[in-house]
Amino acid sequence: MANTTIPSQPGVDLVPGADPTAQLLAVRNLHVEFRTTAGVAHAVNGVDLTLDAGETLAVLGESGCGKSVTAQAIMGILDTPPGYITQGEVRYRGVDLLKLNEDDRRRVRGRQIAMIFQDALSALNPVFSVGFQLAEQFRVHAGLSRAEAKKRAIEQLDLVKIPAAKQRINDYPHQFSGGMRQRVMIAMALSLNPDILIADEPTTALDVTVQAQIMRLLAELQAERNMGLILITHDMGVVADVADRISVMYAGRVVEEAPVHDIYASPSHPYTKALLESIPRLDRKGQELSVIRGLPPSLTNIPAGCAFHPRCRYVQDVCRTDPTPPEYQVDQGRHSRCHFWKEVLGRA
Amino acid sequence: MPEVVLETRNLVKHFPITRGIVFQSKVGAVHAVDGVNLTLHKGETLGVVGESGCGKSTLAKLLVGLERPTSGQIIVNGVDTSTLTGEQMRRSRRDIQMVLQDPYTSLNPRMTVGDIIGEPFEVHPDVVPKAERRARVREMLDLVGLNPDHINRYPHQFSGGQRQRIGIARAIALKPKIIVCDEPVSALDVSIQAQVINLLEQLQSEFGLSYIFIAHDLSVVRHIADRVAVMYLGKVVEFGGDTEIYDRPTHPYTQALLSAVPVPDPTLRGHRDQIVLEGDVPSPADPPSGCRFRTRCWKAQEICATEEPALVERPTSDHPSACHFAALRDVVHSVE
To answer: What ipTM describes this predicted complex?
Structure first.
């Protein structure tokens, strides 16, 4: 792709003070709360995440665990009010994005860190053609002319394998099928060559055959660009297919973090273990599924101690009182926030 | 083989596409369900799988009488429902109830749980005398694992999984023989899905219920179903027992569908036989001639465009498969 205005290897120089040798993304002790009339909801309570170039990190959790809010905070698109980042840092190549002013932040958004969303139909603007929406960022971020921007938009649609891109560029989002719309979003997210892509449940609304197409496309594009990918999902199957590392979230905390093979072979947190045992599998005709009793906690009233303790089968008195379990190091690159991780692993 | 409780014969539902407002003329039809033959036995679970737009939800609506078929028959307990009068039809509906997909929109937010579960008794007043209805509703709540003291609460006071339990309680209130479950767990979180699936299984063994279980999640269907029908564009393309479909699929569409399902085991990454289909499902308003899957099929030849393959057992398939070139391909590798 001939390219004069946008560096093919995205320029860290665009972020003042960025150090190209520093870690691509490091989120430390992130806290987000939502101040509502019904009380303060503690959506994210001290999340740590790291991401290297070319790596796929899966953030796994159920609805309300704070995985999407974490993504929004990294991306800087949290609705404020009611959402507030109360503590923590989001370092991109060493620069804390939370300390940037809004103008600098806007330059980063889309350029260095891009995001795709679950529901492409509501994420795209229904009253503009997809070509206009794609071209818009070339004009705004790269200052290209209309004609030039349109040409680039067509290239982008080709890149995500939308047939007859030249004609389809003038179509509106509703004229595309679900899978094609998701491709448009991917094209849009990747058009400025970001080095971090956050995909928030990118295939949840799609059929399995289309899901397979989209995941394959994402993997190809990621490998081509050596991009860091954060995949937010609740689907343990998708994760097993693509992730390098997994962070499992529960009630706004990362309760377990591990390389993908370890987590499936021997989970070290009771929640992960219970999740794995409760999903029906295609390659197994099951007995009765084991059940996680109870419900995920309300974020306005998170249980003291370990937030999972009311549903946990390993629970003891120490779990019921504050402070929350610290990050126990299980192995190199493996952490668990469970006092009894040895029992869960079967090492005790 | 236990008795057949539900049967469909060449069931067809076409939705007309019209033009004009006052003088409407029919310009075409969406072939939602196009000649479906199914049988459901007592105490059995029949899974229906397929992608969105394949007609599985229309099939569900036809079975419970929410839509009238364009042609074909639905036989419930040996009686063709199209021959029934209004009053007889109403009685027949007691035997076949439905659990809907979205527990957030399928419960009236202005009715209490007691009223929601008790409503079937008002529609069918002779089932339970008025004085006993309240007690019966409490019994139902207890049966589905909810606290009977919450009878006066409203749906918004419950979580998604609990709401789905309310939907199930409403469906079993009239002691039906058949329950049509249309995507009953797809709106729920993973940790809650297992609770609801186990509840459905437990109710089935307790009351000898027969389920039509419609879902797009093939893993869930494998877990719960005894037999499985795979639908594509309004037609059943493959039909068989659970192991026949999952371990010995012979229709290319079934194989592609199964191979696309991610398996939660990273050691299988790159070792699975993954078939990635190109393109999208064609429009049901204008389905391809011959075999409807031929536009996306890697085996398609001339005969596929001219002659529609029948859903029959073939020399290369031990169960009905609607493909001229049906051949076994092991895509799942079941483990014990």
So the answer is: 0.79
